[in-house]
Amino acid sequence: MHSHTRRSLLKTAAILLPSVPVGARSAPPESTATQPRRISDVVLDLNELHKWDDSNGDTWDPFWADDDNLYAFNCDGRGFGKEGRNLAFNRLTGDSPQALSGQMVNTMDEYGISNRKEADNATWKACGQECIDSVFYAFVSRNAYGSDSGDYWLRQTAFNSSLIKSIDKGRTWSRSAAENYAQPMWPGPSFGAPFFIHYGRNGGSVKQDGADRYVYAASTNGFWNDGDSYILGRILRKKLPALNAVDWEYFTAGDGNDARNWSASIHDAKPIIDQRTHYGQSGPCYIPALGLYLMVVWYNTEKMVKWFEPNEMRYDFYQAPHPWGPWAEVHSYSDRFLSPGHMYGPSLCARFQRTEGTNVHLTLFTSGCPFDDVPAGLYKAWSIPVIVKTNPIVPSALVPSGDPRIVYNGEWTASSEARLLGSVRQTASPGASAELSFRGIGVDLIADKKAGFGSLDIFLDGALVHTANLAAENLPRLCGVTVFRSAALSQGAHRLRVVNKTAAPVAIDAFQVYGG
User: Fold this and answer.
1) Is the CB of residue 46 less than 8 Å from the CB of residue 482?
2) Separation between Cα atoms, residue 334 and residue 285, nearest integer Å
3) Fewer CB within 10 Å, N side or C side of the chain?
4) What is the DSSP letter of 365?
């Protein structure tokens, strides 16, 4: 479906930035840009990928509650508890994404142990979640795995969804699982995988698009993975606690600020975005500093031969000025930086948004496979920093590790072991160096990270400016990671030299030169 050069695959690499940059500030949920700005690029900071090794499960959609904590359901796993469940409810406490710690709040026993099926040959799964006016809400639906659904693409179908709520921070929930099974609020697949739009703490107080009066949710056309389209529903905020599907209405096309473009019949709904097999369940997140919505959709690039064994997962980022659109793709990322493994089920979080100059930083939560429940496994909660850029993209040129312009000293060898992105230069000799002379206004160092790898001292124009740690514990090899960037050089000639600091191995992938 997509043909990508090695250069575009290497753009899964991302910027190295301090965890709390000087001058950065949090954007309060009610502060909104006076005029929406256009997003020029979205960057995944893979160098700061974090995984909670004590967690287990997928479909993490953390929401920002009124008590300033994050909460999230997990599916098909034990979450931060001890026993696997179809869905379970967790709390995440901490002042930064990497400082979060998880605790089990409710094992949701009435929804069954992991993989327990009913007469419909399906299991319970959680979809989107949110805290609105101090009440917790979550969509739940019946899901038939791709191995059971009969779908040609081996897609997991999602149907018969309902909305549940908790007034005691997730300790108890209503409606009951039995009621949701017998009398689903949305029978069938049309609203089978709904996700709330995240606006901020306690549901936010954003006036744009009537978000202070309405609650919005987007759903695929009845698929957990690789769906074909999203539709948009909304309900008056004051009516949400009643948990009544008849209070919802659905976008039918045109300007969503016009009430005539909404219908009480879901059969009148028109897709806000559609492309065959390109949309796994997900929901938009509002960025107050930009006055824009950002959404990440995910899909497998080829038909799976066996459930659930993807070939390549892609995360496509879309922006829009309104929940109903128009939605425009900004950037597409491959998960081939993981060697081996895959990521899936992304969700953008409203908490921890901050601005730095013209950039906005967000946090993406996701999970992955294979499914082993061991500390080094991928079937857990992860976070990846997301950097949203609004300035024009600076032209750049990739200088791969085999380029003759790079001067190597010491023992370096070419290696493509355990990589899907081509070969790198690798050394385990202390003091071995690689140097690139270039003209430009910025430069990135792209390298691999792996358990047991060492570190690189980085010299720019003769001065030591950074030491990059290339070790990645309890993770697979991470390929094509930007571990250093200097973005504000004076136009002219420069030298970037990297030196292996110890006898541990290091691998250099490429240099990226900007404005040369």
Assistant:
1) yes
2) 21
3) N
4) E
CB atoms under 10 Å from CB of 35, counted, come to 6
The pLDDT tens digits of the residues spanning 19-51 come to 322 223 333 334 455 567 899 999 999 999 999
Range 334-366 burial, b when 16+ CB lie within 10 A, else e: bbbbbbebbbbbbbbbbbbbbbbeebbbbbbbb
CA distance 362 to 319: 14
Cis ω for the linkage preceding 155 (within 30 of 0): no
- The alpha carbon of 105 is separated from its chain's Cα centroid by a whole number of angstroms, namely 23
Contact indicator for 20, 307 with CB cutoff of 8 Å: no
What is the reported pTM? 0.93
What are the average pLDDT values for consecutive 10-residue runs of the chain, which has 516 residues? Answer: 38 36 34 72 98 98 98 98 98 97 98 96 98 98 97 98 98 98 98 98 97 98 98 98 98 98 98 98 98 98 96 97 98 96 98 97 98 97 98 96 97 86 92 98 97 98 98 96 95 98 97 94
What are the strands, taking DSSP E only, across 66-112? 70-77, 85-93, 101-106
Residue 326 to residue 441: CA distance in whole angstroms: 35
Q: What is the rounded CA–CA span in Å between residue 216 and residue 320?
A: 14
Q: What is the spatial distance between Cα 186 and Cα 177, in angstroms, rounded to a whole number? A: 14
CA atoms of 431 and 499, how far apart (whole Å):
6
Distance CA 457, CA 497 (A): 8
> Which parts of 107-237 are beta strand (E)?
123-132, 135-144, 157-166, 194-196, 214-220, 227-236
Cβ–Cβ < 8 Å for 363, 60: no
State the Cα angle at 332 between 73 and 4, rounded to 5°. 135
Pairing of strands 50-51, 382-389: antiparallel
H or E element that contains 179: helix 177-182
Residue 217: which residues within 8 A CB-CB, separation 6 or more? 128, 139, 194, 195, 196, 197, 232, 233, 234, 283
Structure tokens at 33: 């840009």
Sorted by sequence, the CB contacts under 8 Å of residue 296 that are 6+ apart come out as: 282, 315, 316, 317, 318, 346, 347, 348, 364
CA angle 92, 194, 331 (to 5 degrees): 80
**267, 270, 211: which is closest to 235 by C-alpha?**
211
Which pair of structure tokens corresponds to residue 47? Answer: 């160098």
At 244-292, the pLDDT tens digits run 999 999 999 999 999 999 999 999 999 999 999 999 999 999 999 999 9
Residue 223 pairs in a beta bridge with: 157
Residue 444: how many CA atoms within 13 Å on its side-chain side? 27
Residue type, 474: N
